[in-house]
Design goal:
684 residues; Arc Repressor Mutant, subunit A; 27 helices; 16 strands; globular; transcription; PTS_EIIA_type-2_dom
């Protein structure tokens, strides 16, 4: 068993037991030929085992398994990680862990024996690791008989160890590293029987130690982070220069004494570092008095930079803003003190990846200003909040019940899951987010469905139907939720019987290929909504709004050519384009969503009649000299009237530009109509 076989199995499980070759190729970044190769390896490995069969049907790969939720976790529990074959990247991550925490003298001969590979392979691995660590100012030295060791700041070394530990593409490699950590703790004299459960129980107890209401994000990953650092502590003490706030001193002393009882002893400086780790994982019901001025400044700057790119304001939606406050507070500790407690889990759809690109630009701005260290996982976490801003129209009919969402991967992913469900249910339900601990406080006679990213037992659900999903809904999960909504809406709301009757009449005369779509259209017809809340991309962007040019001579010409269609229709005034040019001259490419693509806008000052969008593509691109000759290949002019009415259209634009990497070839289309249909994602 290796990482590629494990990834194929997990992707099949993620997609409900089946996936096309295209999906696997996109997610795993390997060719169809290599997927075939690993499937043959799997068939050889499976001989003599009771593991479910993987079969092929046309372009699909199917996992022949009835119990998708439990069989993989049961398999992992019983799996002997000694039989797991490490990839080169996994082996390099493990070498870093060995050098950083092992009680043994790590010499090249030791690594050759440990990984059962050649001396040349290990030498090449060490060369790759050395190059990768240079950007953190961490270096590998060799004492000769003493073996390899790290030099550099201890906080940087620990950050690298956390990154290597939390990096994994599959659950088997995760188990491999956890068992290695426990083995090293035993080598240092720890009693590891039940240690993971003891630390977990201790942290759960710590959540109730003071008056602040909070819980820990990714608790199991936090437990393993603490065990990893416990190993490192045996090898090197960290003289942490920070101080525990006085109001937290008593709680941390108590936590320190409880850790001592299970064999983990903290010096006062190490206890301070533990405090920083716990703060990095804390999800706290926010108290504005508990935020430092720098955290407040960071929050406001993130909002400011995102608004500069999108002209959307996180302040507009109270629920998102409150969750965002909590997220940034813990993110500040992770990025300021170089701590990593978990990794991003889940798939990326095109819209979410588009907002990832924007979040990356925002974090680059604030990261340099506040001296923050972040990785791609922090960008992913932040992108959830931006992607959750999409508005969903509210029908005039009253809500027909409550739906409860339980998502254990974080607040941002919970909010994004809620946004997806609102679209599917057409805002017919009041949707609430809660953690598993407080589920009893939310369940009542009006609760129609529980949507959860984890299994919940029937007793806890109290007879309410449960739908198990991922935080980024798969197409199959969307279909299942849509079908549940279609099948049950009539029993929840008698006013919908008219729609049901109409559909029955249609069935007598025709074959309905898509019942859900027909239901949606009839619901829109019989329950009209305020169209101003439903501005989609096709509502503000038309074919005649596109201009294609071979070249331009200046940025100003580029802007005017892009905005001319909007001027011709009197959607904007020339002053709006002048404002855009002034802001670009003053602040640079503030509105760059993708490399070389601007979605330019300005603060409206009675110079925009309605939300609108136009585009100019330059085949050769234009090098802007004052931006270090940055090549701009396309400029959208986004006419905005406020900070929210264009929200849906902007979200669709970002997602559609990401689809099939359209943003990379936007200026290489010969057919303008084909370009337009690609941007609005119309049938081609």
């Amino acid at each position: 068993m290796n990482t590629y076989i494990a990834q194929i199995i997990q992707l099949l499980l993620y997609n409900g037991g089946e996936a096309t070759f295209d999906v696997l190729m996109e997610q795993m970044h390997i060719s169809k030929r290599m997927i075939d190769y690993y499937l043959r390896q799997f068939e050889e490995w499976r001989v003599g085992k009771s593991f479910p069969l993987i079969s092929r049907e046309d372009d699909k790969i199917l996992l022949q398994c009835k119990d998708y939720n439990n069989f993989w976790s049961d398999f992992i529990k019983e799996y002997d990680v000694k039989d797991y074959f490490l990839s080169a990247i996994e082996r390099q991550a493990c070498i870093v862990l060995l050098i950083g925490i092992s009680n043994a003298r790590i010499k090249i001969e030791y690594l050759v024996e440990f990984f059962q590979v050649s001396k040349n392979t290990i030498a090449n691995d060490l060369l790759i690791i050395r190059k990768a660590l240079c950007k953190y100012h961490v270096y590998i030295e060799n004492k000769g008989k003493g073996g390899y060791f790290f030099t550099g700041k201890e906080c940087d070394i620990r950050y690298i160890l956390m990154q290597c530990y939390h990096y994994h593409d599959n659950d088997l490699f995760h188990k491999y590293k956890l068992e290695y950590i426990l083995e090293e703790l035993r080598n240092y004299g720890f009693e590891t029987s039940g240690l993971v459960c003891k630390v977990r129980k201790l942290l759960k107890y710590a959540e109730h130690q003071d008056n602040e209401k909070y819980y820990f994000l990714a608790l199991d990953d936090l437990v393993e982070t603490i065990l990893l650092i416990a190993c490192r502590m045996q090898k090197f003490d960290f003289d942490c220069k920070e101080e525990i706030p006085k109001k937290a001193e008593a709680t941390m002393r108590l936590i320190g004494s409880q850790f001592k009882e299970i064999g983990i002893n903290y010096t006062s400086r190490e206890l301070t570092y533990l405090y920083l780790i716990l703060q990095s994982a804390k999800v706290s019901i926010y108290n504005l008095n508990d935020f430092s001025n720098e955290v407040f400044d960071l929050i406001n700057d993130i909002i400011h930079y995102f608004k500069a790119i999108s002209q959307l304001n996180i302040f507009e939606q109270t629920e998102i803003y409150n969750m965002f406050l909590i997220h940034v507070k813990s993110m500040y500790f992770r990025t300021k003190y170089k701590i990593k407690i978990t990794n991003f889990i889940g798939a990326m759809n095109s819209s979410l990846y588009g907002f990832y690109c924007i979040a990356e630009k925002v974090l680059a701005k604030v990261g340099s200003k506040y001296n923050l260290t972040y990785d791609k996982d922090e960008v992913y976490f932040l992108s959830y909040y931006f992607a959750s801003l999409e508005q969903v129209s509210e029908p005039l009919t009253s809500n027909i019940g409550n739906v409860l969402i339980i998502c254990v991967s974080g607040l941002g992913s919970s909010m994004y899951l809620k946004t997806q469900c609102l679209k599917i249910f057409e805002n017919s339900f009041t949707i609430s987010i809660c953690d598993i601990k407080n589920i009893d406080n939310y369940l009542n006679e009006d609760t129609k469905l529980i949507i959860s990213t984890i299994d919940i037992d029937d007793k806890t659900c109290k007879g309410i139907p449960l739908k198990r999903v991922h935080q980024v809904l798969t197409d199959k999960e969307k279909q299942e939720l849509s079908e549940w909504f279609f099948m049950n809406r009539f029993s929840f709301n008698k006013e919908s019987e008219m729609i049901h009757d109409v559909m029955d009449i249609v069935k007598e005369c025709a074959v309905i290929k898509n019942q859900n779509k027909l239901f949606h259209n009839l619901n829109q017809y019989f329950n009209p909504i305020n169209c101003t809340d439903l501005l989609h991309l096709k509502d503000i962007f038309s074919l005649d709004s596109i201009t294609q040019l071979p070249s331009v001579t200046s940025l100003e010409q580029f802007i005017y050519c892009a905005g001319q269609p909007l001027l011709d229709h009197s959607y904007i005034k020339e002053a709006y384009l002048v404002n855009i040019i002034d802001v670009l001259n003053q602040h640079g490419p503030y509105c760059e969503c993708f490399d070389g693509i601007l979605v330019a806008h300005a603060v409206p000052q009675n110079d925009v009649e309605c939300p609108c969008l136009s585009l100019c593509c330059v085949e050769q691109g234009f090098a802007v000299e004052k931006w270090n000759h940055k090549i701009i290949k396309a400029i959208f002019i986004l006419g905005v009237t406020d900070t929210k009415s264009h929200c849906n259209a902007f979200s669709e634009l970002i997602g559609n530009l990401t689809n099939d990497n359209l943003y990379e070839r936007i200026n290489r289309y010969d057919d303008k109509e084909l370009l337009y249909k690609s941007i609005i994602k119309a049938d081609l």
